[in-house]
Write a structure and sequence with these properties.
Helix content: 55-70%
Largest sheet: 4 strands, antiparallel
Number of helices: 6
Order of helices and strands: HHHEHEEHHE
Structural class: alpha+beta
Distance between the termini: 33 Å
Radius of gyration: 21 Å
Number of strands: 4
Strand content: 15-25%
Length: 189
C-alpha cells in the first residue's frame, strides 16, 4: 500500500469516527434537552395553573413577571445548562429571539403551515451545543396570550400592559408557535 493510500484511508477513518461520535453526542443532547425542557415546562405551567386556580389570572401574570426567571435560573443551575424561552412575539424583551434563533423559528413556522410535525433539534454553535424545541400554544394559555377583549379580559390586559408595556405576545390561537425552548450546553468535546 502506498503512502498516499494510507493517508487517504487514515483521513477517511478519522472523518468516519468524528461523524459517528457526533451522531452519538447529538442523540445524547437531544434526549437530555427533551427531558430538561419538559421538566421546565411542567414546573412553570404547574405554578401558573396553581396561581390561576387559587388567585386568578392576574396572579399568574405576577408569577411570570416575578418568579419565572428565578425558577428557570435555578433549573439551569441544577441541570448545568442555560435554559431560556425565546420568541418573535415576546412578552418580555429578554426573550426576544436572536438571528440564529429566528432561523429555527422560521423553519418551525413553515413546517406548521404545511401541517407537518415540528421536532426538537440540536445545533452546534461555537463552543456550545444548542437544543431547540417548539412551544405550541395550548387552549389554557389564551386567557393571557389570546385576543384582547374577547379571550383576554380588559382588566387582565391592562395589568399585562402595565407589567409589559412593549408586549407582543397576544393574538395567538391554539396550536400557534408561541416560542421555542433554547437550552445551551457547554460542549464537552
Amino acid at each position: 500500500m502506498t503512502m498516499k493510500k494510507i493517508i487517504v484511508l487514515f483521513i477517511g477513518l478519522f472523518v468516519f469516527a468524528c461523524n459517528a461520535k457526533q451522531s452519538f453526542d447529538r442523540e445524547k443532547y437531544l434526549k437530555e434537552g427533551k427531558e430538561i425542557a419538559q421538566t421546565t415546562a411542567k414546573t412553570l405551567s404547574g405554578h401558573v395553573k396553581k396561581a390561576i386556580k387559587e388567585k386568578g389570572p392576574i396572579e399568574a401574570i405576577n408569577f411570570c413577571k416575578l418568579s419565572a426567571y428565578p425558577l428557570t435560573d435555578s433549573l439551569s443551575e441544577l441541570y448545568k445548562v442555560k435554559i431560556s424561552r425565546v420568541a418573535i412575539k415576546n412578552r418580555n424583551p429578554e426573550n426576544k429571539a436572536t438571528a440564529k434563533d429566528l432561523e429555527i423559528f422560521k423553519k418551525y413556522e413553515e413546517l406548521i403551515a404545511k401541517g407537518e410535525k415540528v421536532k426538537p433539534e440540536i445545533k452546534s454553535d461555537n463552543d456550545k451545543i444548542v437544543f431547540y424545541a417548539p412551544i405550541r400554544l395550548q387552549q389554557a394559555c389564551l386567557i393571557c396570550h389570546g385576543t384582547p377583549q374577547s379571550e383576554i379580559p380588559d382588566t387582565l390586559f391592562k395589568h399585562i400592559q402595565t407589567l409589559y408595556p412593549d408586549d407582543l405576545a397576544v393574538n395567538f390561537k391554539e396550536g400557534d408557535l408561541r416560542g421555542i425552548w433554547k437550552l445551551e450546553f457547554e460542549s464537552k468535546e
